[in-house]
Amino acid sequence: MAYVDQQNKFGLVLQGGGALGAYEVGAIWYLYDIGMECTIVSGASSGAVNAVTLAGAPAHSYPPDVLQRLWEEAFTAEPPIPFVLPQVRQYWSLFGVPGMYRPRWDYWNLPTWTHFCDTTRTRKTLEERLDWDQVRDPTHMRVIVSASGVETGETRYFSNLDPKEPLRIEHVMASGSLPPGFPWTMVDHQPYWDGGITDNTPLKPVIDNLRPGEPETVPIFMIDVFSSAAPLPTDMQQVFLRMFEMMIQNKLKADSETAQSYTSFIRVLKEIEKAIPEDHPIREEEDFKKVMNYALVNEIRMIDVMKPAGESAADFSRETILRRINTGYEAVRRELEARPLKRQYTIQQGDDTLIIIAQKVYGDGNLWTKIRDANPGIHPDKLQIGEKINFPFPVKSLPLYSGVPMVVNALKS
């Protein structure tokens, strides 16, 4: 698996969606299990929490394991007594989530309330569980979170890319300040609400902050945790849930269509670039460089976790959280086994057979036929040093680094 580690970087765009963020944990888990590593991540709301947790996982820990523990230990809401009906468990978060929020009880101030819950617990959870020096280090992982200005109505992106403004817990809190449940968060004397209100799928800042060489080699994964279709709502909670889903889904669709339009535009742009002389002054303009950065983006993958229609984003019950982690894991596995990533290998001294190459890139020489099938016309007995060949990644029988059974076992317990 050593060779795979040399080209294992990926970008990640994480949506907000309350308890639906558990799907993202499973998705990230699978990508790490096949030996990949996140180099740039953006998120909104619960996606922002997942983003900083991924970046701030303590040294020598397995990042997906840190994420899973965060959700199972801090972001689940369970009744204090056993044998409570599932219909009751899924609404237990109305009484708070231990590591996230608690409801307000100062009803004498109700006429002036602007939020229903106190989110001090979220701050404490993030402070205690994450290495914030690591979160602020862009050489470890670039992190971007979106927030929505309460007074301006505009999206603002906070990141660890500007040393003059280090990424702080306030920025993550702002990204997750979903009204009317949570209070707005003050950042530099400005109030901010949930980033999902104005940009719940922050794809553009990821593309804008790719480094030279990354657009061609770093796939970007977008995790879709919402449903396009759903049954007719039957109560007010379902009405609000469906309204929120439709707003987010339409924005996600627009982002996806934008990405696809870029792909079409890229083909034309590359042909135009060929006609521009190398010494033409336009090549030095920043706008040209930015456009060409988009032109180089090789792969954007939308992962649909196939969330059941009408499933509540407020269901923080332990059983549901663990099931969502498993579902997210399986969703990415199915996607990449059906449409593997395209990788390249440069033939080196000693690469006498495809079996040897398969052992290097997969850790299993028996998978040499995968390489043969990905390279029509290749002559296994005439491999040339320096020749580039394709290999799909991952493949179905690729051994995983840790696997998701820990979560499966927890779900059964």
Structure characterization notes:
- By secondary structure, this protein is α/β, with parallel strands linked by helices.
- The protein is built from 16 helices and 12 strands.
- The chain has helices spanning 2-5, 21-33, 46-55, 63-74, 86-89, 120-129, 132-135, 169-175, 204-208, 214-217, 236-275, 286-296, 318-338, 354-362, 368-374, 405-412; strands at 9-14, 37-44, 102-103, 117-118, 142-149, 155-159, 185-187, 190-194, 220-224, 300-304, 341-346, 388-393.
- The strands form 3 sheets. Strands 1, 2, 5, 6, 7, 8, 9 and 10 form an 8-stranded mixed beta sheet that branches.
- The chain is globular, with a radius of gyration of 23 Å.
- The chain starts with a helix and ends with a helix.
- The model is unreliable at 408-413 (pLDDT under 50).
As residue ranges, the low-confidence spans are: 408-413
Mean pLDDT: 86
Gyration radius (Cα, Å) is 23 Å
| Separate helix tally | 16
Determine the N-to-C terminus distance.
33 Å
Structural class: alpha/beta
Helix percentage:
40-55%
- SSE order, one letter for each helix or strand: HEHEHHHEEHHEEHEEHHEHHEHEHHEH
Work out the number of β strands: 12
Strand content: 5-15%
Shape: globular
User: Could you give a short account of the major beta sheet?
Assistant: 8 strands, mixed
Comma- or semicolon-separated keywords:
12 strands, two-stranded antiparallel ribbon, globular, 413 residues, alpha/beta, single chain, 41% helix, disordered C terminus
